[in-house]
Amino acid sequence: MVDQVNKVVLAYSGGLDTSIILKWLQDTYKCEVVTFTADLGQGEDLEPAREKAKMLGITEIFVEDLREEFVRDFVFPMFRANTVYEGTYLLGTSIARPLIAKRQIEIANITGADAVAHGATGKGNDQVRFELSYYALNPHIKIIAPWREWEFSSRTDLINYAESRQIPIAKDKRGEAPFSVDANLLHASSEGKIIEDPWIEGEEFIYSRTISPEDAPDKPTYIEIGFKRGDPISIDGQELSPAKLLTSLNNFGHDNGIGRLDLVENRFVGMKNRGLYETPGGTILHTAHRAMESLTLDRGMAHLKDELMPKYAELIYNGFWYSPEREMLQTAIDHSQQHVTGVVRLKLYKGNTIVVGRKADKSLYSEDYVTFEEGAADYDHADAHGFIRLNALRLRLNKMMLG
Questions:
Q1: What is the set of domains in the chain, with CATH numbers?
Q2: Averaged pLDDT for residues 257-275
Q3: Active-site residue identified among 180, 234, 294, 363
Q4: Pair type for strands 7-11 and 115-117
């Protein structure tokens, strides 16, 4: 029994799968469909998606450039926390889903839709990320996940359905794709098929955002990134908007072979997954931000941030961007960034991002204190004796009492 749905907002790429979903929604739910296509910097012309939606009979079509909002309100807040999942993944796919879901809910409110739909499969994390976000933003919204509902079991079934509904099929879409790609301004991820064996090295043709480190220039590239309250604001002294700044860093990363990652990760739904990820600009930014914090963040604050970060990363990975605990952590993280302002100088060389300089007006680094020569008058070397003795007390007692 299919729930009654009057109008649904579909996250629509214009590709074959979401075009099939569009028709399937009309056939199965007998409802109006509104399409929403987001430009998050995936690097392709989105006007064909608009034209294809028109061709399929859709009258309410939203194609929107969300690149600045994506970087400003989602990527940068995440990077203030130095966020990595399981030690390496910079969460390029994860951080895009809450923005897409947010805009879908907003469009549902604008158009009077009572449902939203996505094209995520039943084995992946994205279904969770989309739907947790939908429910957090509208507890009463109806959600349609076609890949969990329809009876299609093969690519042939999908092709046959598309042909029966006069959905155009490009020649290169008739067979099984060798792997799937998700891309936005922060990253590109490739998964599935020829990538699934974790022992086999990924072929060079899989990578789209970076050249091979072996092919990168023999001469290093130097850049300076300016920060204000934890966010990057300039490259080599030129102030840039968030999206333009990340685009520029992506170009530097691409040209120097920076940001590749071969990862086996633990999905929230319970299985392990192997992916080949490229995050060129994000990799540079992550290194630069930590360097900026090394000058400007108090030790206790910095270490506490590092303890909180894995939980923060897990919340984003698992789809809890709009959860109260993520917002609570964000408040603490943002407070820590009040004085994270200054400039970091980096050397980019054959896949490496190397910090070679950093400066800040409110630096906590003091040459007067740290020097091996005579320095700050109020630092007495003799104080170290009592400090060490007190910290050694429990160790001494442990040895004396327990042997």
A1: 7-176 (3.40.50.620), 181-359 (3.90.1260.10), 373-402 (no CATH)
A2: 96
A3: 180
A4: parallel
Concerning whether 97 is annotated as a catalytic residue, the answer is yes
Average pLDDT, the chain: 95
At 251 the pLDDT is 98
Model-level pTM? Answer: 0.94
Task: Kindly tell me if the per-residue pLDDT of 372 is higher than 70.
Answer: no
Is 50 a residue of the active site? Answer: no
Q: Which of 13, 94, 103, 126 is catalytic?
A: 126
SS (H, E, C) the chain: CCCCCCEEEEECCCCHHHHHHHHHHHHHHCCEEEEEEEECCCCCCCHHHHHHHHHCCCCCEEEEECHHHHHHHHHHHHHHCCCCECCCECCCCHHHHHHHHHHHHHHHHHHCCCEEECCCCCCCCHHHHHHHHHHHHCCCCEEECHHHHCCCCCHHHHHHHHHHCCCCCCHHHCCCCCCEEEECCCCEEEECHHHCCCCCCCCHHHCCCCCCHHHCCCCCEEEEEEEECCEEEEECCEECCHHHHHHHHHHHHHHCCCCEEEEEEECCCCCEEEEEEECHHHHHHHHHHHHHHHHHCCHHHHHHHHHHHHHHHHHHHHCCCCCHHHHHHHHHHHHHCCCCCEEEEEEEECCEEEEEEEECCCCCCCHHHHCCCCCCCCCCCCHHHHHHHHHHHHHHHHHHHHC
Structural tokens at position 333: 């993280």
17 counts as catalytic:
yes
What's the confidence (pLDDT) of residue 104?
A: 98
List 67, 80, 94, 97, catalytic entry: 97
